[in-house]
Amino acid sequence: MKxxxxxxxxxxxxxAVPAGAAQADAADTPPTVNEYVALGDSWAADATLxxxxxASTPFGCVQSTHDYAKQIAKAxxxxxFRDATCGGATTVNMLNPQSSPVGVNPxxxxxxxxxxxxxxxxxxxxxxxxxxxxxxxxxxxPAVSPCLEKNVVNGVDLMxxxxxxxxxRVAATIAGIxxxxxxxxxxxxxxxxxxxxxxxxxxxxxxxDADAIWLGxxxxxxxxxxxxxxxxxxxxxxxxxxxxxxxxxxxxxxxRWVEGLVPYSGDPVGLAVPFHPxxxxxxxxxxxxxxxxxxxx
Length: 297
Known about the structure:
Layout: H1 10-16, E1 35-40, H2 42-45, H3 68-75, E2 80-83, E3 98-100, E4 103-105, E5 118-122, H4 130-136, H5 146-151, E6 152-153, E7 156-157, H6 158-180, E8 185-189, H7 209-233, E9 236-238, E10 264-266, E11 269-271, H8 279-294
Parallel strand pairs: 1-2, 1-5, 5-8, 8-9
Antiparallel strand pairs: 3-4, 6-7, 10-11
């Protein structure tokens, strides 16, 4: 994602982006970006099983050929681009390698340099164990709520405690980026709505309404935490949650931006990673990110 280039016109920007992906208003002049590094977890990698690329990370990262970072790099014609995003990543993997049965992703910070001028970061969900908790909620009985039973003990929400504990780790990650890439503009992305806060869709997704509501609330709680961290660090938060309602995993193919339990997607057609963005979701992330990049700092 880096090498010197002239400012693109808005028309050129639109032509560079696939239909339905990131687009700019005709009056916008995209900023010049010479070296872009994308960091983060599976929602940043737009984890997939049907369009995996190993150009930047090992197969085990299940990084998508068309994740939002690649769309942004193409839209801005970035000369030097490094996509370190990897499924399952936590803040620990910024400084430490991430191993999988099919490859090792080097520490994500290894892609940063003193000349990096744009960094996007999507992290925090795995630090709070929210992704792993989703599978704990699966049940054959819609009247039971295994997630609530396991995570809310004597009135104390253990997931809320984990989310709070993740905040200083995300803050430390931002500080680490600044140390290694002092010239970089840093944008922190939150998580868009994967499950609504008004209930689930049992048996399509075998999670009780009570657990589905709780999961939706915990996702919002993570986003609020990320918003506070970004504000304290003085960096820009890219709000992908606002505007994503009505596209959760319970919606039909063509409407949903997140896949449900069945590991198959209609966008694109093929194998998918359950409870992760499909291509429509990745395109949405790219649009919101490009809007943020083009906005005043």
